[in-house]
Inverse folding.
């Protein structure tokens, strides 16, 4: 069963475009090719200044290894610095596709 991770958070309007660019040009392409990533999507709601990331993983363990890798590199801390507070991360198991 696939493991789904959704990350959603609000950003200051003046950081929104830079964060979208960071994800689109750097972070999400690495995510998409990371071992165990089955799919990866990024969306932006400009009027609300909210970014949503949706990823699908072979297993929770694959995502845990990915998150550890991102944390060790400092990528996760860099991304978090764009958000207002900590974004909400929801982890669940896919039951239908």
């Amino acid at each position: 069963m696939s493991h789904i991770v959704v990350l959603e958070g609000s950003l200051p309007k003046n950081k929104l475009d830079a964060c979208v660019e960071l994800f689109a040009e750097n972070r999400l392409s690495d995510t998409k090719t990371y071992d165990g990533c089955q799919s990866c999507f990024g969306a932006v709601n400009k009027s609300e200044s909210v970014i949503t990331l949706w990823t699908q993983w072979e297993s929770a363990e694959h995502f845990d290894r990915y998150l550890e890798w991102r944390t060790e590199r400092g990528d996760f801390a860099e991304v978090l610095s764009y958000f207002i507070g900590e974004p909400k991360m929801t982890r669940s198991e896919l039951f239908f596709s």
The chain has one domain: 3-90. The first helix runs from residue 13 to 33. The helical segments are 13-33, 60-73, 75-80. Residues 3-90 form a domain with the Alpha-Beta Plaits fold (CATH 3.30.70.100).
